[in-house]
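Notebook B, p. 112. Complex prediction, attempt 2.
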Amino acid sequence: MHTFRGPWPEGKSGAMALTFDCDVTYAYAPARPGPDGPRTGAALFEKQPKRLQGYSRGLYGVNVGLPRILDMLKRRGVSGSFYIPGANVERWPDDFRRIVDEGHEVGAHGHEHENLSLYKDDPDGERRILETCIAAFEKHLGQRPTGYRSPAWDMNLHSGRILMEQGIAYDSSLFAEEAPYLLSAAYPDQPDLLEFPIDWSLDDATYYMWFMPPHLMAQFHDPDEVFRIWQAELDGIIGEGGVFTLTCHPSVIGRHHRMNILERLLDHVTARGDIWLAPLSEIAAWVQPRMARDSATEAAE
Ligand SMILES: [Zn+2]
């Protein structure tokens, strides 16, 4: 399958993006879709979790994890990509405006972190969710997102087209490769949406998002073990000219012993010196015209 594996800026070997999914309470107290479409304004605030436990775990992400991540990125002069449900932007506009103010990318992540498998036969409902999310970004963050990450990495057959209609330039929710590709190259009848592949092994939730039994739960892992996995994947993917996309959640990675893994990974990136570390929006802007040129050349041959 055709993927983009360089050339990268300044002769770098490959690219890397630090991405953060800001689910806040929806990671622990998921919302059910409203009967009349996505909730917003007063209707949104009526819908609060009935149990404080899940709510408080999400709040840790916005109160502690997010500022800790932003402080670390500022100290190191690194920019990341933050994917946020629109309803969270509406609830905590000041916290999320800091992301924009400090020069990071903000991308769409559903409105109430909806389970999109419920919308597999309802493209209009899915379109309303995206429009509502984008409206919250425009109102509170002063910009339209150009990137998208689906809640729980779930994509329907119509999702790619809806994203492109709304001016989304890339998605980062699917697997299939270790370098950017177009959906049209991988799946039948899909549009030319640029995809930055992800993986569960490159997600902090896999190792640390713990739930009480009998729910699906991750065991807590030794940070050295997670670091070794991420470093091996980073070196392997960069060695083949791809893009290493790491997915973290402020409520999960924000603990001290886990932030250490990120710091060590960034130390490794600095020591190597051949990795282009940038938000996915910047990597997309580099890849897109070059991929289009590659396809045109292939078509002419
Ligand atoms: Zn999420």
